[in-house]
Amino acid sequence: MDETPETSSTPARLRRRLIDLTLWVRRNAELGTLLFTAAAIAAIWGFAELAGEVVEGGTQSIDRSLLLLLRTPGDLTDPIGPPYLEEIGRDMTALGGVAVLSLATCVAAGFFAILRSYGTMLYVFAATGGGIVFSTVFKQLFDRARPDLVPHGSMVYTASFPSGHSMMAAVVYLTLGALIARVLPQRRLKVYVLSVAMLVTVVVGVSRVYLGVHWPTDVLAGWLVGAAWAIACLLVARHLADRGHVARENAD
Question: Strand 71-72 and strand 75-79: pairing?
């Protein structure tokens, strides 16, 4: 059967529309901004899906299995590894506490004060402080019980989902890492700072599960929300830099 002119021109029309869309993107947005925005949306979407599964009880089996993997077989009161590893776990989990996070924020703010980038210094306080307040309020929306399979290796006072330590660690360390990396002169320095920020965030989350005070999905949820916040802060910083309110990014 012969194709009609309208049908035969469909691929050409699609190509033209794709070209028009590409040109519009180049004129109106940077690729990096689009990628960061997509990552933030993906993190929020992932959290929403995870929260739905947690509320419906769909993650209970995998949560129990992963938590028990970190316990000595036959003795659920004993985390795997030598005794000093549990003490290290408590040291690591402290990196996600309010006192340490506040200290890290002040140190980062001092870094920008030395650079005489006072707008960025104020933005550091606003971004991290706002993130801590947001995580505290956000945590109150859920009322998931703490793990009851094993003894808690650290004192806890609030509900379990999402993990406050994991969320605040992601909020503060990833936000500070992104803001500091922006002004560093060399790509390897940027990669180093961001890698350290991600490593500390991961260590804090893992320590919460190791100590038995959080289900694994609590930690994953905290990471997702914290990462979304950090990405949003980076996008706002780019916008403020264009207006001259914070330090501009130092390209390698």
Answer: antiparallel
Whole-angstrom distance, CA of residue 123 vs CA of residue 111: 13
Residues that are catalytic: 165, 214
Phi then psi dihedrals of residue 112, to 5 deg: -75, -30
Question: Running along the chain, 252 residues long, what does each successive block of 10 average in pLDDT?
Answer: 48 64 52 68 80 80 85 80 86 89 90 87 86 76 75 70 85 86 83 91 91 87 88 82 70 58
Q: In the numeric block, which tokens belong to residue 226? A: 């914290």
How many CB atoms lie under 10 A from the CB of residue 42?
A: 14
Mapping DSSP onto H, E and C, the string for 101-158 reads: HHHHHHHHHHHHHHCCCHHHHHHHHHHHHHHHHHHHHHHCCCCCCCCCCCCCCCCCCC
Scanning the structure block, which residue is given the tokens 């035969």?
8
- What is the pLDDT at residue 106? 92
